[in-house]
Amino acid sequence: MAMTPLAAGGVQGPVRIHEKDGRLRASLRDCVAMLEPLDAPVPVAGPSKPIAIRTLGKQFLPRVAIATPGTDVSFPNLDHILHNVFSVTKGNRFDTGQYRPGDSPRVKVTSPGLVKLYCNVHHQMNAFLWVVTTPFAQLLDGRTGLQFDQVPAGTYRLRLWHPESGEKTWVIQVGSGLTQGTWDLDATLPPLEPHKNKFGRDYAPMADDRDY
Ligand SMILES: [Cu+2]
Fold first, then answer.
1. Contact 60, 80 (CB under 8 A)
2. Which chain residues have CB less than 5 Å from ligand 1, an ion?
3. Which of 82, 99, 116, 164 could form a disulfide with 187 if both were Cys (CB 3.0 to 4.6 A apart)?
4. Where are the alpha helices (DSSP H) in the chain?
5. What does pTM read for this prediction?
Protein backbone atom coordinates (compact mmCIF):
# COMPACT_ATOMS: atom_id res chain seq x y z
CA MET A 1 0.00 0.00 0.00
CA ALA A 2 1.48 3.32 -1.02
CA MET A 3 1.71 5.93 1.69
CA THR A 4 0.09 9.25 0.96
CA PRO A 5 2.93 11.74 0.67
CA LEU A 6 2.70 14.64 3.07
CA ALA A 7 2.94 18.13 1.71
CA ALA A 8 6.50 19.32 1.61
CA GLY A 9 7.91 22.74 1.01
CA GLY A 10 11.12 24.67 0.98
CA VAL A 11 12.70 27.25 3.24
CA GLN A 12 14.92 29.80 1.63
CA GLY A 13 16.37 33.23 2.15
CA PRO A 14 19.41 35.33 2.88
CA VAL A 15 21.34 35.16 6.15
CA ARG A 16 23.16 38.31 7.16
CA ILE A 17 25.90 38.62 9.76
CA HIS A 18 26.20 42.16 11.07
CA GLU A 19 29.60 43.31 12.29
CA LYS A 20 29.86 45.60 15.33
CA ASP A 21 30.33 48.59 13.03
CA GLY A 22 27.13 47.76 11.18
CA ARG A 23 28.73 46.38 8.05
CA LEU A 24 27.69 43.00 6.75
CA ARG A 25 30.22 40.19 6.87
CA ALA A 26 31.14 39.18 3.35
CA SER A 27 31.05 35.44 4.00
CA LEU A 28 28.78 33.02 5.87
CA ARG A 29 31.73 30.74 6.49
CA ASP A 30 31.36 28.80 9.78
CA CYS A 31 27.64 29.59 10.00
CA VAL A 32 25.32 26.63 10.70
CA ALA A 33 21.57 26.45 9.97
CA MET A 34 19.34 23.80 11.52
CA LEU A 35 15.65 23.12 11.18
CA GLU A 36 13.86 21.09 13.86
CA PRO A 37 10.17 20.11 13.79
CA LEU A 38 8.16 21.31 16.78
CA ASP A 39 4.93 19.40 16.10
CA ALA A 40 6.25 16.14 14.66
CA PRO A 41 8.97 13.63 15.50
CA VAL A 42 12.40 14.53 14.21
CA PRO A 43 12.96 12.53 11.01
CA VAL A 44 15.65 9.92 11.32
CA ALA A 45 18.94 11.24 10.04
CA GLY A 46 20.81 9.03 7.61
CA PRO A 47 23.67 6.79 8.71
CA SER A 48 26.53 8.82 10.08
CA LYS A 49 29.50 9.18 7.78
CA PRO A 50 32.93 9.54 9.40
CA ILE A 51 34.32 13.03 9.27
CA ALA A 52 37.86 14.39 9.56
CA ILE A 53 39.02 17.58 11.21
CA ARG A 54 42.64 18.20 10.25
CA THR A 55 45.27 20.17 12.12
CA LEU A 56 47.24 22.35 9.74
CA GLY A 57 49.20 25.52 10.42
CA LYS A 58 48.11 25.35 14.07
CA GLN A 59 44.47 25.56 13.07
CA PHE A 60 41.62 23.09 12.87
CA LEU A 61 40.30 22.60 9.36
CA PRO A 62 37.39 22.79 9.00
CA ARG A 63 36.77 25.00 11.99
CA VAL A 64 33.07 24.11 12.06
CA ALA A 65 31.60 20.72 11.18
CA ILE A 66 28.29 18.88 11.48
CA ALA A 67 27.88 15.29 12.67
CA THR A 68 25.14 13.00 13.97
CA PRO A 69 25.22 10.96 17.19
CA GLY A 70 27.53 7.98 16.69
CA THR A 71 29.72 9.68 14.11
CA ASP A 72 33.42 8.81 14.10
CA VAL A 73 35.56 11.93 14.02
CA SER A 74 39.24 11.66 13.16
CA PHE A 75 41.88 14.34 13.61
CA PRO A 76 44.69 13.87 11.04
CA ASN A 77 47.76 15.88 12.06
CA LEU A 78 49.19 17.48 8.91
CA ASP A 79 51.62 19.68 10.85
CA HIS A 80 55.17 18.84 11.92
CA ILE A 81 54.47 19.41 15.59
CA LEU A 82 52.49 17.69 18.33
CA HIS A 83 48.84 18.52 18.75
CA ASN A 84 46.06 17.46 21.07
CA VAL A 85 42.29 17.66 20.82
CA PHE A 86 40.08 17.75 23.85
CA SER A 87 36.51 18.59 24.71
CA VAL A 88 35.07 19.30 28.13
CA THR A 89 31.57 19.68 26.69
CA LYS A 90 29.15 17.67 28.81
CA GLY A 91 28.03 14.51 27.03
CA ASN A 92 30.93 14.59 24.59
CA ARG A 93 34.05 14.75 26.76
CA PHE A 94 37.22 13.35 25.30
CA ASP A 95 40.98 13.84 25.19
CA THR A 96 43.13 12.43 22.39
CA GLY A 97 46.37 12.93 24.29
CA GLN A 98 49.25 14.49 22.39
CA TYR A 99 49.67 13.02 18.94
CA ARG A 100 52.42 13.16 16.37
CA PRO A 101 52.61 14.43 12.80
CA GLY A 102 50.88 11.89 10.56
CA ASP A 103 48.82 10.41 13.38
CA SER A 104 45.05 10.55 13.25
CA PRO A 105 43.31 9.85 16.56
CA ARG A 106 39.63 9.05 16.39
CA VAL A 107 36.71 9.68 18.72
CA LYS A 108 32.98 8.99 18.57
CA VAL A 109 30.55 11.77 19.42
CA THR A 110 27.34 10.69 21.09
CA SER A 111 25.21 13.48 22.50
CA PRO A 112 23.42 16.11 20.41
CA GLY A 113 24.57 19.67 20.85
CA LEU A 114 27.50 21.97 20.26
CA VAL A 115 30.90 20.44 21.06
CA LYS A 116 33.76 22.87 21.57
CA LEU A 117 37.14 21.51 20.52
CA TYR A 118 40.46 22.82 21.71
CA CYS A 119 44.13 21.84 21.56
CA ASN A 120 45.85 21.50 24.92
CA VAL A 121 49.16 22.60 23.36
CA HIS A 122 48.02 25.67 21.43
CA HIS A 123 45.64 28.07 23.09
CA GLN A 124 44.61 29.73 19.83
CA MET A 125 43.22 26.58 18.22
CA ASN A 126 39.47 26.21 18.41
CA ALA A 127 36.86 24.31 16.45
CA PHE A 128 33.19 23.51 16.80
CA LEU A 129 31.30 20.35 16.08
CA TRP A 130 27.52 20.44 15.91
CA VAL A 131 26.04 17.03 16.73
CA VAL A 132 22.53 17.11 15.33
CA THR A 133 19.60 14.73 15.06
CA THR A 134 17.78 16.62 12.33
CA PRO A 135 18.55 15.85 8.70
CA PHE A 136 17.95 19.53 8.00
CA ALA A 137 21.32 20.92 9.02
CA GLN A 138 23.81 22.69 6.81
CA LEU A 139 26.97 24.73 6.79
CA LEU A 140 26.42 27.98 4.94
CA ASP A 141 30.01 28.35 3.71
CA GLY A 142 30.07 29.70 0.20
CA ARG A 143 26.38 30.56 0.18
CA THR A 144 24.44 33.77 0.55
CA GLY A 145 21.71 32.25 2.66
CA LEU A 146 20.02 29.04 3.65
CA GLN A 147 17.99 26.69 1.54
CA PHE A 148 16.20 23.58 2.71
CA ASP A 149 14.22 21.50 0.25
CA GLN A 150 11.64 18.75 0.74
CA VAL A 151 10.74 19.86 4.24
CA PRO A 152 7.50 18.22 5.46
CA ALA A 153 4.82 20.80 6.23
CA GLY A 154 4.62 21.85 9.87
CA THR A 155 6.00 24.15 12.53
CA TYR A 156 9.76 24.31 12.88
CA ARG A 157 12.40 25.92 14.99
CA LEU A 158 15.03 27.47 12.79
CA ARG A 159 18.37 27.69 14.58
CA LEU A 160 21.22 29.77 13.23
CA TRP A 161 24.60 29.73 14.87
CA HIS A 162 27.99 31.28 14.24
CA PRO A 163 31.10 31.15 16.47
CA GLU A 164 31.04 34.93 16.79
CA SER A 165 27.32 35.42 17.26
CA GLY A 166 26.18 32.39 19.21
CA GLU A 167 22.75 30.94 18.52
CA LYS A 168 19.53 32.64 17.52
CA THR A 169 16.21 30.90 16.88
CA TRP A 170 12.99 31.58 15.04
CA VAL A 171 9.73 29.65 14.78
CA ILE A 172 8.61 29.26 11.20
CA GLN A 173 5.70 27.62 9.43
CA VAL A 174 6.45 25.42 6.47
CA GLY A 175 3.64 24.81 4.02
CA SER A 176 3.58 23.21 0.63
CA GLY A 177 5.23 26.13 -1.13
CA LEU A 178 8.37 28.12 -0.53
CA THR A 179 8.77 29.79 2.86
CA GLN A 180 11.02 32.80 2.50
CA GLY A 181 12.68 35.01 5.03
CA THR A 182 15.70 37.09 5.91
CA TRP A 183 17.61 36.11 9.01
CA ASP A 184 20.07 38.33 10.85
CA LEU A 185 22.90 37.51 13.25
CA ASP A 186 25.12 39.94 15.15
CA ALA A 187 28.84 39.20 15.37
CA THR A 188 29.46 40.35 18.93
CA LEU A 189 31.69 37.60 20.33
CA PRO A 190 35.49 37.37 20.02
CA PRO A 191 36.85 34.88 17.44
CA LEU A 192 38.52 32.97 20.27
CA GLU A 193 36.47 32.40 23.41
CA PRO A 194 38.60 32.63 26.57
CA HIS A 195 39.11 29.08 27.75
CA LYS A 196 41.26 26.93 30.03
CA ASN A 197 43.38 23.95 29.09
CA LYS A 198 42.20 20.39 29.61
CA PHE A 199 43.23 20.53 33.25
CA GLY A 200 41.07 23.59 33.84
CA ARG A 201 44.15 25.81 34.18
CA ASP A 202 45.52 28.73 32.23
CA TYR A 203 47.69 27.91 29.25
CA ALA A 204 51.41 28.33 29.87
CA PRO A 205 52.95 31.07 27.75
CA MET A 206 54.97 29.42 25.02
CA ALA A 207 57.51 30.47 22.46
CA ASP A 208 55.94 30.54 19.04
CA ASP A 209 57.03 27.36 17.30
CA ARG A 210 56.75 28.56 13.77
CA ASP A 211 58.05 25.37 12.22
CA TYR A 212 54.76 23.61 11.87
CU1 LIG B 1 47.87 22.21 18.68
1. no
2. 83, 119, 121-122, 125
3. 164
4. none
5. 0.91
So what's the pLDDT on residue 78? 98
In the reported structure, the alpha carbon of residue 3 is separated from the centroid of ligand 1 by a whole-number distance in angstroms of 52
Tell the burial category of 101 from Cβ atoms under 10 Å away from its Cβ (0-12, 13-18, 19+). middle
Q: What pLDDT score was predicted for residue 210?
A: 60
- Closest to 30 in 3D by CA, of 134, 135, 170, 129: 129
Cis omega (within 30 of 0) on the bond before 14?
A: no
Average pLDDT, the chain: 92
How much distance in Å is there from the Cα of 140 to the middle of ligand 1? 26
Residues of the chain with CATH 2.60.40.1120: 8-42+138-186
Q: Where in the chain is the domain with CATH 2.60.40.420?
A: 51-131
CATH code of domain 8-42+138-186: 2.60.40.1120
